[in-house]
């Protein structure tokens, strides 16, 4: 019951939005890495980024009529979709191939779940990305789900806050929510850049550093970590009771 009050809801919901925005913002940072790993063209990366807005627009039109009841449940459902939208593309790192050039064991090709030795240097230079290209549609699927999942928190969240706050306090609460949410963009760049300093398989090849052209950073961490934090916070929101607006009748 310690979080059964409107200010606590703003804190939990605000942090959830912060981590959701971080999972959005990191995508722009890791696009160059995805182009290298999955052999993507600029048209394909543009479609990945655009699919979010398209699906979000249709979701807002369709779902706006259904979000008036059980708002906290809809908010949590949207956040669960956001979690899946990040984990689906991040999971491709379990299947794709990554080059490990110029190690003392010789040039080899290594993934998190598979390892193929004796790959020719020309193969590590880019042919592996051609084989990885078949997984690029999972990034499109993740972007589509991201747009759909972001709709319920955006619509139901603000209307629910309008119900549990007084008219005077609502303006301050919604402003605080937006400020905390917008912080997710710069934080996503900072955290995402930090994750890219780790090699994608955590098994850094001998003599390879983040300054080398062959370096492939841990792009999937920028999607996975914020989404798991969203999942944790959504567990509180789905259990949130309907708060009653308290009005001081003694005044």
Structure write-up:
The chain has helices at 6-38, 42-63, 71-90, 121-132, 136-149, 151-164, 167-182, 184-195, 221-238; strands at residues 98-100, 108-110, 115-117. The protein is mainly α and 251 residues long. The protein has a 3-stranded antiparallel β-sheet with strand order 1-2-3, covered by helices on one side. Strand 1 and strand 2 (108-110) form a beta hairpin. Helix 1 packs antiparallel against helix 6 (151-164), helix 1 (6-38) runs parallel beside helix 7 and helix 3 (71-90) runs antiparallel to helix 5 (136-149). The chain starts with 5 loop residues before the first helix and ends in a 13-residue tail after the last helix.
Task: Give me the Rg, rounded.
Answer: 21 Å
* C-alpha termini separation: 27 Å
Task: Estimate the mean pLDDT confidence.
Answer: 80
Approximately how much helix is present in the residues?
Answer: 55-70%
State the secondary-structure class.
mainly alpha
**Amount of beta strand:** under 5%
- Number of alpha- plus pi-helical segments: 9
Largest sheet: 3 strands, antiparallel
Strand order of the largest sheet: 1-2-3
In total, the number of strands is: 3
């Amino acid at each position: 019951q310690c979080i059964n009050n409107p200010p606590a809801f703003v804190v939990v919901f605000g942090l959830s939005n912060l981590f959701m925005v971080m999972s959005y913002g990191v995508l722009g940072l890791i696009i160059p890495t995805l182009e290298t790993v999955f052999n993507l063209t600029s048209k394909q990366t543009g479609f990945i980024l655009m699919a979010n807005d398209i699906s979000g627009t249709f979701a807002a039109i369709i779902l706006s009529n259904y979000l008036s009841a059980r708002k906290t449940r809809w908010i949590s459902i949207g956040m669960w979709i956001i979690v899946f939208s990040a984990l689906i593309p991040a999971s491709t790192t379990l299947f794709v191939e990554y080059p490990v050039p110029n190690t003392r064991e010789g040039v080899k090709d290594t993934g998190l779940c598979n390892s193929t030795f004796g790959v020719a240097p020309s193969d590590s230079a880019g042919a592996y990305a051609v084989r990885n290209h078949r997984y690029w549609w999972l990034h499109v699927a993740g972007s589509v789900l991201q747009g759909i999942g972001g709709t319920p928190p955006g619509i139901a969240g603000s209307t629910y806050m309008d119900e549990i706050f007084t008219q005077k306090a609502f303006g301050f609460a919604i402003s605080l929510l937006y400020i905390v949410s917008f912080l997710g963009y710069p934080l996503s760049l900072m955290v995402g850049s930090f994750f890219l300093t780790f090699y994608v398989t955590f098994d850094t090849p001998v003599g390879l550093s983040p300054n080398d052209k062959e370096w492939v950073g841990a792009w999937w961490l920028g999607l996975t970590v914020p989404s798991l934090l969203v999942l944790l916070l959504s567990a509180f929101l789905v259990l949130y009771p309907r708060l009653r607006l308290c009005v001081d009748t003694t005044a």
